[in-house]
């Protein structure tokens, strides 16, 4: 034992487990009188949010929820969803935010898999939840305690399924004294499910330490000032809203809630409530770019964060032209949402807008609080040269990486092979050591032995003024093995043909990369705006 280990032990005065619960406690203590939530006609300050969250925690505790219990929630971006992010972890329980667009079978499977003890659900989703609960009981013999939320901003029927109505349930319980964090920061804080496009979804288990650090990382990455007004265009169910429920609490900001993600509602909320920040997938930013200019009147100084899919350069360029400051971040559910960023440099401002869009469109470098992010050869785990050409796989390691996959040790071990988290995203390192994704490993098109990046082809298509959305996938080809096929949604009123888009691609791409097959069809998307290429691949095969 050296001298620095003698009589210098950890104790409650000098060592506390890291948990975002501390952010809520501090903000309620210091800024309790400041606004915390705006939702339709409802307004809460931080003292009120603190009390409501403590009442929810007390009600859950009375229902037997404690360390290791799972609480599922089926909620849109409402005050109750933010409260769940504060109350459930305070009991050392695990929050399971359900995707509000899933079918009953998948909802039942997920609630069974994570052993949900309580379900808090918005009455809008009563039809699908009723089916899910019947399946959960019939197939698995599991009956969670159901709490109904009758949101004031929902105009439809408030069909009750549960034992309690949310507001009455809160009112019936005296609030806990405080929102405590866990004894061990490695304890699970949430479980989020991947999309399950190639079989059953995987349950990504995250911990208090990672949630704390990524919430702080969001502030550092965005140089986010105190008291931001944050618009919920990103679903809070998606990777716990990229940890922003806790980031907003840390910075004593305002949750501006939004039930429906539509351009008029987004821009009206920005103007009316002085929104300063928002996050979204590229498709949502494109809604703003392509909205009528009259809707954007009076909306200024807004900072956006884009992730969820590689953003087309045309979208980044378009946002810059209308005065939105966009930061491109990169990540996955397994790294709490964003854990990489196209960190901006002052010199980029000297480049023309197209080059700025290219630089900002890269996946970039690790978050300040993430230990490692680089591009490695997946076979040898050697870093690829920073030549912008040699392809490898983006990998992460550090505190902003999941605990692992629930009840799936084989998938966990595979994901962590060699001491790195393997993303499955194929990329290059450019000369400045910023990573640029070429494609998902499953999305690379191999035509005549040549690799075609679907992202590269999509970037070119997005530069055509008539293209609103597009996706490029492989289709079987008797001669080349695979060939690219492009699915396109045109802008309203635009006149464009397949021949026009093929000619446009020929002007910007090598001949073998040009999609000769262009189809004008609706493109399937997830609730977070990601294009579902697996569905398009099935279409192309058919």
Attribute tags:
AMP-dep_synth/lig_dom; alpha/beta; ANL_N_sf; 542 residues; GMP Synthetase, Chain A, domain 3; 5-stranded parallel β-sheet; Rossmann fold; single chain; ligase; 3 domains
Question: Low-confidence runs (pLDDT<50, min 5 residues)?
Answer: none
As a percent range, the share of helical residues equals 25-40%
Mean pLDDT: 93
Cα radius of gyration in angstroms:
24 Å
Number of helices: 17
Count of beta strands: 26
* Class by alpha and beta content: alpha/beta
Query: What is the CATH architecture descriptor of the largest domain?
Result: 3-Layer(aba) Sandwich
With strands numbered from the N-terminus, the spatial order across the biggest sheet is 2-1-11-10-12-13-14-15-16
Number of domains: 3
Task: Describe the structure concisely.
Belongs to the ATP-dependent AMP-binding enzyme family. It is built from 17 helices and 26 strands.
């Amino acid at each position: 034992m050296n001298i620095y280990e003698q009589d210098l032990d950890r104790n409650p005065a000098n060592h506390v487990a890291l948990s975002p619960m501390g952010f809520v406690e501090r903000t309620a203590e210091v800024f309790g009188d400041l606004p915390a939530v705006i939702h339709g006609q409802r307004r809460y300050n931080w003292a009120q949010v603190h009390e409501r969250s403590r009442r929810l925690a007390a009600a859950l505790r009375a229902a037997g929820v404690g360390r290791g219990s799972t609480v599922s929630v089926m909620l849109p971006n409402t005050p109750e969803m933010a409260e769940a992010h504060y109350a459930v972890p305070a009991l050392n329980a695990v929050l399971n935010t359900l995707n509000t667009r899933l079918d009953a079978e998948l909802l039942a499977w997920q609630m069974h898999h994570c052993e949900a003890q309580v379900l808090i659900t918005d009455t809008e989703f009563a039809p699908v939840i009723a089916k899910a609960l019947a399946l959960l009981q019939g197939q698995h013999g599991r009956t969670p305690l159901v709490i109904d939320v009758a949101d004031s901003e929902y105009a439809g029927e408030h069909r009750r399924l549960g034992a309690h109505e949310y507001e009455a349930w809160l009112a019936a319980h005296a609030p806990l004294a405080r929102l405590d964090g866990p004894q061990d920061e490695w304890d699970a804080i949430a479980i989020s499910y991947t999309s399950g496009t190639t079989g059953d979804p995987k349950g990504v288990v995250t911990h208090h330490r990672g949630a704390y650090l990524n919430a702080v990382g969001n502030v550092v990455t965005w140089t986010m000032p105190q008291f931001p007004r944050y618009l919920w265009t990103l679903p809070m169910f998606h990777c716990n809203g990229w940890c922003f429920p806790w980031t907003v609490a840390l910075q004593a900001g305002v949750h501006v809630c939004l039930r429906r993600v539509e351009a008029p509602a987004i821009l009206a909320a920005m103007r009316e409530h002085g929104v300063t920040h928002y996050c979204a997938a590229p498709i949502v930013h494109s809604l703003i770019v392509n909205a009528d200019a009259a809707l954007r009147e009076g909306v200024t100084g807004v900072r956006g964060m884009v992730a969820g899919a590689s953003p087309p350069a045309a979208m980044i360029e378009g946002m810059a032209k209308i005065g939105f400051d966009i930061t491109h971040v990169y990540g996955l559910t397994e790294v709490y949402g964003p854990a990489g960023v196209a960190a901006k440099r002052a010199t980029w401002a000297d480049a023309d807008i197209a080059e700025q869009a290219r630089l900002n469109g890269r996946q970039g470098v690790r978050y300040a609080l993430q230990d490692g992010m680089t591009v490695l050869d997946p076979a040898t785990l050697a870093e690829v040269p920073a030549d912008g050409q040699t392809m490898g796989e983006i990998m992460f390691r550090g505190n902003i990486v999941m605990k692992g996959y629930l009840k799936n040790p084989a998938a966990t071990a595979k994901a962590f092979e060699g001491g790195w988290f393997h993303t499955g995203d194929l990329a290059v390192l450019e000369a400045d050591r910023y990573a640029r994704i070429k494609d998902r490993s499953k999305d690379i098109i191999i035509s005549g032995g040549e690799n075609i990046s679907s992202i590269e082809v999509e970037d070119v298509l997005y530069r055509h003024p008539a293209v609103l959305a597009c996706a490029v996938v492989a289709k079987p080809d008797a001669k080349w093995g695979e060939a690219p096929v492009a699915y396109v949604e045109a802008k309203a009123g635009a006149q464009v043909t397949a021949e026009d888009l093929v000619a446009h691609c020929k002007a910007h791409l090598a001949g073998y990369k040009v999609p000769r097959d262009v189809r004008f069809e609706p493109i399937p998307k997830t609730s977070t705006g990601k294009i579902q290429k697996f569905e398009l691949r099935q279409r192309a095969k058919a």
